[in-house]
C-alpha cells in the first residue's frame, strides 16, 4: 500500500523527472567543462596561444555544476550532516526532526531564490554582459533561482518520503 502511495504521488513524479533532467544536464556540463579545459591547456601550452573566453566558461560551467549538484544532493539526502544524534532518536522523533530539517531547507531556498530572482531582474544585472562570453550576466546568475526551485521540490518530496516510508535497518530513511 505504501508503495502505491509513493507511485501515485505527483510531487514524487515531478522530483524523479527533475532528477533525471538534472543528471543529464550535469553530465553534459561535465563533458563541456572537460573539453573546454583540455582545449584551453592545449592552446596555451602547445600552440602558445590562449582562448580568451575559456577561463570564464570554465568558471560558469563549474558554478552551474555546483548548484545542480547541490540540488541533487538534497534529492538524495547526501548533504553533509552529523547523524550521530538523529540516528539514536525513536522513530517518531526522528521523523519530526528529519521533516524539520527539510522545512528549514525549504525556507532557506525560498528566501535565497526570491532575493536572487529580484537581483537578477535588477537593471544592473540585466544590462550587464559577461566580460569574455557573449552572454548577459542574468543568464549566468539564473542558476541560483533555478537550483532553489529544484531544492524546494526535492525537499517537499523528502518530507513526503519521511512520512510514507518505513525506516531501514540502520534506523534511517532510504531517501
Provide structural commentary.
The protein is mainly alpha-helical. The chain has one domain (2-164). The chain has helices spanning 2-8, 10-46, 54-75, 91-121, 123-126, 137-141, 143-164. It is elongated and about 65 Å long. The model has no long low-confidence stretch (mean pLDDT 88). Keywords: Cell inner membrane, Cell membrane, Membrane, Transmembrane, Transmembrane helix, Transport. Belongs to the TRAP transporter small permease family. It is a multi-pass membrane protein. This is TRAP-type C4-dicarboxylate transport system, small permease component. Residues 35-163 form the Tripartite ATP-independent periplasmic transporters DctQ component domain.
Amino acid at each position: 500500500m505504501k508503495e502505491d502511495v509513493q507511485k501515485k504521488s505527483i510531487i514524487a513524479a515531478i522530483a524523479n523527472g527533475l532528477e533525471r533532467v538534472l543528471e543529464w544536464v550535469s553530465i553534459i556540463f561535465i563533458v563541456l567543462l572537460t573539453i573546454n579545459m583540455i582545449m584551453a591547456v592545449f592552446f596555451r601550452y602547445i600552440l602558445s596561444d590562449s582562448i580568451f573566453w575559456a577561463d570564464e566558461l570554465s568558471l560558469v560551467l563549474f558554478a552551474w555544476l555546483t548548484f545542480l549538484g547541490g540540488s541533487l544532493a538534497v534529492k538524495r539526502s547526501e548533504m553533509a550532516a552529523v547523524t550521530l544524534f538523529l540516528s539514536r532518536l525513536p522513530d517518531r522523533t526522528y521523523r519530526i526532526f528529519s521533516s524539520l530539517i527539510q522545512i528549514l531547507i525549504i525556507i532557506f531556498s525560498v528566501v535565497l531564490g526570491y532575493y536572487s530572482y529580484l537581483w537578477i531582474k535588477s537593471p544592473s544585472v540585466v544590462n550587464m554582459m559577461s566580460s569574455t562570453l557573449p552572454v548577459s550576466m542574468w543568464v549566468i546568475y539564473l542558476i541560483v533561482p533555478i537550483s532553489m526551485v529544484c531544492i524546494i521540490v526535492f525537499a517537499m518530496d523528502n518530507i513526503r518520503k519521511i512520512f510514507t516510508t518505513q525506516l531501514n535497518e540502520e534506523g534511517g530513511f532510504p531517501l
